[in-house]
Specification:
Order of helices and strands: HHEHEEEHEHHEEHEHHEH
CATH class: Alpha Beta
CATH architecture: Alpha-Beta Barrel
Oligomer: single chain
Number of helices: 10
Radius of gyration: 19 Å
Strand content: 5-15%
Strand order of the largest sheet: 1-9-8-7
Largest sheet: 4 strands, parallel
Shape: globular
Number of strands: 9
Helix content: 25-40%
CATH superfamily: Phosphatidylinositol (PI) phosphodiesterase
Number of domains: 1
CATH topology: TIM Barrel
Distance between the termini: 55 Å
Amino acid sequence: MLSFFSDQIDKHKAVSEEEKTINDLEQSEGSHFPGDDYRPSDRKNWMAGLDVEKLTLNKIVWPGTHDSATNDIGIPLVSRPLAECQTLSIYDQLVLGTRVLDIRVQEDRHICHGILTSYNVDDVINDVIRFLSETHSEIVILEMRTEYGHKDPPEFETYLTDKLGQFLIQQDDNLFNKAVSEILPKRVICIWKPRESAKPNRGGLLWNSDYLKDNWIDTDLPWKKFQSNLKHLSEQQPISSRKYFYRVENTVTPQADNPVVWVKPVTDRIRKYARLFISQCVAKGCGDKLQILSTDLIEEDFVDACVGFTHARIEGKV
């Protein structure tokens, strides 16, 4: 028993030390980067607010959400705090400025996060279509994947193409250097990641897992995750030559053996340092490698930071 309490005290100290390290870095070096003062006048249409003739796909810093469809997951005040990574609906996230969605499904086409379930994936698709119908120049990356430990939904590739066909951007390695204006009116890059089924073929309407990569690590320690994100990003090709999307998740994950297991207090350890991360990317010489930046519990300032850095890129300030 004494050993258990000693371990919990040590874990609390480790978290506190890491929070102090990352906070000290921000205090000493600041969170400034090219475009950090830019604010889109309309987050719902922020791509349209930029020059879509100059805005190529590989210049965009895409604001993304982690476990995007968990806003109604589990039982309120019981299991929901353990898995709710977003509080906004998919539609509201898109209106706020989110442009990369991380959707996890199980065999019956319901949203899930581990063993907890939520609404049918139809609700996600309907929210995406509603947003697309209200905008004209916004492109969305929609990642659909079978959750770990679950089976693929039957005929899901057909389902996605039937539902989203008119909006789908065909897979093309040459797309990354194209301007948004050249890609419109197509609006959705849909990446389907099954666990057992065959992955989508290259050149089709759906993109496969080769085109969205990351280096996720399972930790609740903010400085460890921050450093890991920088390290793995620095090892990627520059966006000018990359033929895939690379995602950095500015999140940390609750651990079962830690006294704090609710998502919000854990992820808040790193969530507020998105601007610091972008500034460190620039300072460390990998500002030309940042592409997708994802977060839990997305807010306006996170979107503004991504859009601001994007604006600086197309203005030649990076």
